[in-house]
What does this fold into?
Amino acid sequence: MIDLRLLRENRGDVERKLKKRKEDINLENILKLDDERRRLIKEVELLRRERKLISKGPEAREKGKELKFRIQEIEKNLKDVEEKLKRELLNIPNIPSDYVPDEMKIVKVEGEIKEYDFKVLPHWEIGKILNIFDFERASKISGPRFPLLKGYGVRMEIALLNFFLEENRKSGYKEIITPYLVKEETMFGTGQLPKFEVELYKCERDNLYLIPTAEVTLGNLLRNEILEEDELPIKIQSFSPCFRREAGSYGKETKGLIRNHQFHKVELFKFTKPEESDEKFLSLVEDAEKLLKKLELPYRVVELPADELAFSSGRTFDLEVWMPGEKRWLEVSSCSNCYDFQARRTNTRLRRKDGKIEFVHTINGSGLALGRTMAAILENYQNEDGTVRVPEVLKKYMDCDIIKREG
RNA sequence: GGAGGGGUGGCCGAGCGGACGAAGGCGGCGGUCUUGAAAACCGCUGUGCCGUUUCCACGGCACCGGGGGUUCGAAUCCCUCCCCCUCCGCCA
It folds into this structure.
């Protein structure tokens, strides 16, 4: 949620930055509602004060009655205005930070893109040869675009999970496992609601939503809490399945493990002091990069322009791994600094040593998406005979160094 | 799923229609005393919003799980939702 006071006092600046998102955003109405709100507050507070003053005297009964009706009427209007204002405010995306480039910027390219002297295959074909996926049966059970792994596929998934958790722990992230079904208000907290309802799976009976990322649960973890200054930064990681409806994306980029309704991910998350978030954001990106480096996968880091930022993000770096079988870059991590945007929605604050209270900043990033990373390994480590070498760092987790077809 | 019992300030806990932002205790902060510390004693001790102000601050209103209602007036009465606990049933 953007800061109303900031908007009131620096309207031009806010408007200019939001415009870069190329969305239709109406601030006029918000400011009008805010004026109205403040006018009504003044009015009702004056009357309440009067009521308080006479409540001890002899005129409490007759005069109080009249005041009561006047107060009730204004309260009703005020509530109405506040609801409208809140609704508008919840629909405004985060303000892009000053760092955000005008168009997608390639920050760096790392690792070596290998030359292959045979015909390289995309990962879904490799998986078919190795018999480690079964999308047909997944589809029979659940419908299209659900994953089903077997044998070495499962082993690599679990190996990656263990590798990620261990490396991230070394980088200082405490591991936690959260619920995967959450209340509506939780989805509001991190910004999935109200605007992106169609992207979410919902359990109607219980009014619960399946999380599309652990960012949701981690971001809400400290909701309505005030942290002490020296508790920060808080660094956590969480493994979770992610459920996404992917509405409207059928027919594109949907082969194999790439854009499924369900996948596993390890999420990195930080709560920081405002003055530290830029620096802690960059170090989170580095932490995610470390994983790709150790897996020896070629990747690049791109910084997204304003019109590609997610709703809650003020600044985003994507990590994209090279897919030789498809000759393209594939996003395996998206890291965002949300600044105080989510903290306002979740009311997560910090108390300074001098007693002052402020909103914290939140930073999230994948570290990493498991399915896509596996896809990248299959393509980058494939051999001509259809087997796949196991990356050095995964050998101890997989307890083997090559993946062959199994019956 | 069924039957009960609860949610009050950082924590414990009283209040059950007006004098209550809320007794008392603990913790925390400041002070007195002390060579220092402890003890003892004294004072202070939340959050949000609206406004005033150059800062330090100050004034007002609201907040006793959330929302609604009754009443001139609600922490206190009523409704509803959420959360926690106990017992029974079911269950990985």
Summary: Residues 38, 41-42, 44-46, 48-49, 51-52, 54-56, 59-68, 183, 226, 357 of chain A lie near RNA strand B (CB under 10 Å from a C1'). The radius of gyration of chain A is 26 Å. Chain A has two domains: 4-90, 105-403.
